[in-house]
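Help wanted!
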Amino acid sequence: MRIPDYQTAELRRKNVRLAWGLAGLALFFLVTSFPFWTGIFRIVGTQAIQ
Amino acid sequence: MSTTTLTHDEAHHHEAPKGWKRWLFSTNHKDIGTLYLFFALIMLFLGGASAMLIRMELFQPGIQLLDPDLYNNLVTNHALIMIFGAVMPAAAGLANWMIPMMIGAPDMALPRMNNLSFWVLPAAATMLILSFVVPFFPGGGTQINTGWTIYPPLSVQVGMSMDFLIFAIHLLGISSVLASINIIVTLLNMRAPGMTLMKMPMFCWTWLVTAFLLILVIPVLAGGVTMLLFDRHFGTSFFDAAGGGDPVLFQHLFWFFGHPEVYILLLPSIGVLSHVIPTFARKPLFGYKSMVGAMLAVATIGMVVWAHHQYTVGMSLGAVTYFMIGTILISIPVGLMVFNFIATMWRGAMTFETPMLFAVGIVLMFTFGGLSGVMLAVVPADMQYHDSMFVVAHFHYVLMPGAVFGLFAGVFYWLPKWTGHMYDEKLGKLFFWTNVISFNITFFPQHFLGLAGMPRRIVDYNMIFTEFNVISSIGAMIFGLSHLLFLYIIFKTIRGGKKAEGRSWEGAKGLEWELDSPPAFHTWTVAPQIK
Amino acid sequence: MHNNQKRETRNFKPDSICRVIQTNRSRLPGFWLIAPLSLAMGDAAAEYGLNFPEPAANVAQEIFDIHMMTMGIATFLLIIVFAIVFYSIYFHRKSRGYEADQEFHNSWFGNWSWVIVPVMVLGVDLTIAGKADAVLKKVWDVPKEENIMDVKVTGHQWWWEFDYLDHGIKVESRFVPAEESGDLYLREVDNRLVLPTGVKIRFLHTSADVLHAFWVPELAVKKDAIPGYVTETWAELNREGVFRGQCAEICGTWHSRMPIVVESVSQEKFAAWVDDQNAIKLAAAAEASVDKTWSMDELMAKGKPLYDTKCAACHQVNGVGLPPAFPPLAGSAIATGAIADHLDIVIKGKEGTAMQPWGSLNDLEIAAIVTYERNAWDNNTGDVVQPADVKQAR
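Answered by r_m:
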């Protein structure tokens, strides 16, 4: 895979920064969609009681 | 700007590599676009074959061909393959091919991630197919008999094939999110100088909105199925009322993804129509700004009305009233889009090549599907329609014209650009007519089946439903087989045909038509200046 | 009403299969004429089975009306759109020498259509939403009345259980195989849901295993049955008759085999039916509580019909099951192993599978089923399980 040479270093930085920003947005929606932590706590809690 | 100008040095460095390495290691948006499109084509035939098996079983009352679990498994796989395997990759293929050419960019912003987002797909498809195949082997557990909605607790009962399915959904989701990030970055950072957002071609706008929708909703689905996986294997009870969980929670998570998904499938095709109709009406798109506005409105309202897929789960009066009114209001932006398309045709100088035929067909049939959608939005009436064959008819009338025919229109429209050959117009028209007529024979009678009381996803039915099922099944066989003609036309065009000019259609406007047909391996290495 | 009569002949007097197919065939050509018309003429459509069946409940009538209204509006809009598009593709074509109007989108209309069109659509939307909201308010919440009759509807894989909470009656309603149901295959059950007319009935929906949905078109009632939840709907029947529906939420292998048959009868007939059911229940309880030792033959004779109705949907009449979802009983480790384990799985079910607890059956019934399972299909263990053993195992 050849590194694309048509992008200036500045444009490349800009692209990668925006991409990470969008990935962060996706991750935020992933995490907030989970009542995950409540579930984990429930397991931990019940096992602790037992 | 006539064609791309490559300096000698650049041309030397950017020759297409030969053999399998060209495809496996490709970072070229055109090659990756081609890969996406062929992948989608294979999946279209897989999904189509499963649909034809379903209709064969439903041809007559009684269980003739498929045992009930296999039938349900096919129902599940038909939906997942068509949505995640055929329509979304096909739309991504069009995006890969066309977006850089339309905005005057040399390639996608993140070419290596582009490679990754495609090559995740075959792995995902393998997982998906394994989920279908595994139960046939000894010890493979039960078949997935849940439908694509994989509602618990039924999906918790299913054997290991459900785990394959969950991982397939994760992989498909990763692929879509990566592709979306790439498309957004490309559209926001890589436009040719002078191309403001409001000068961007409509197809790019639709994909910008689609990509944002994908980034927002796919992670929610991923979260939902992950919790399902935990419930299945790790003793959690997110969706198990006995352990303090809530089976309806999964439905909310699923449809929070599932409803915007409808617009994800729809919008790229709306984008294609926004190019096809002006081209063949030979006048500019009517209401560019209102189109952009309508699309943003659809996406926004579409994010907050998911629960109209679950009117029957027992929500409060206030909740269903809200979801009903929200859903009905979607008809405003969608109506505006349809209106703009008709107004673009109005007082144009139209010719009816295959892409335009599909476009007109879409406007008519999508309106039909949209109107039955308004009927479904009405909660008291939905108490009857819900989960009946009426719903099956409705969403096929929305998604088949709204998404699939739009992609067909796009393929016929840009095939000369991609291959450098004109497709066979006579065969194209033959394909359109057999396809659209058999589509209507297949799905129109299903409205009546639903009203008469036939639920969806049943393998066997009482004989009062026979006649419409017979008609529907006959239509489905013709509809399914007609796609072989589509395949033939595509390969015939790739192999040869009348030479296509750079501007393949008389009325075609836009940067992509300034390039040769087929375009050079790298295009717009020198960005065009937009006035 | 003519419509009503026609439907009844079709549904309730089983014709030979040949005759039905003949009638179907004679009706087929007419369909293509009728179908387009039916969209415009709702009432006429009902006669040809192209629309909802005639409502049998007060609320159902209002739902039917709003369905007809939205369908009317949709048809009207569709005709307008089709007319404009077809006018345009006929007149505004290049082959007729029509010149494209390049400034159309810049005309007054072009500049303001983004306001005009949404306002018009909003008008239509408000018409629909207004009417829908009014009907919804009447339909959605169960009226708060003292003398409302409660029926608890429990979905099981794959049968329905109806508990008449006010009468202490429980009805198990199962699909009847094709040999016995004939033309009503998948639309007939062994025990119907008998309901009185003219009484407000509240249905309380729940499920014992996975999601199901209770749907009878004539009642316009559809509600999901969700394990761990109780959802409500209500209906007031306004005519006698037999109304057929099906489970509407995919619930696994035999989703297609969960018919619902509502038999709507007058209040007097309903009272008589309730008395009958109570008498049957008392007789069964009396029989089960008799302190006697049952012989193998007696238990096998009782066990076979019980097994065939309650167990055979999954484990099959011949005991071979439908692996891997439903294990065979013929020669199985459970059915030929320790009696205690066998009783345990029948009474308590097996978690994570479709095997549900059957503890609601009385001791005699379980004893008969277990005895039958241990001696049928060459299992020949020779074990005789007595009701007393079951009582002990609970």
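OP: Thanks! One thing I noticed: Chain B has a mean pLDDT of 92.
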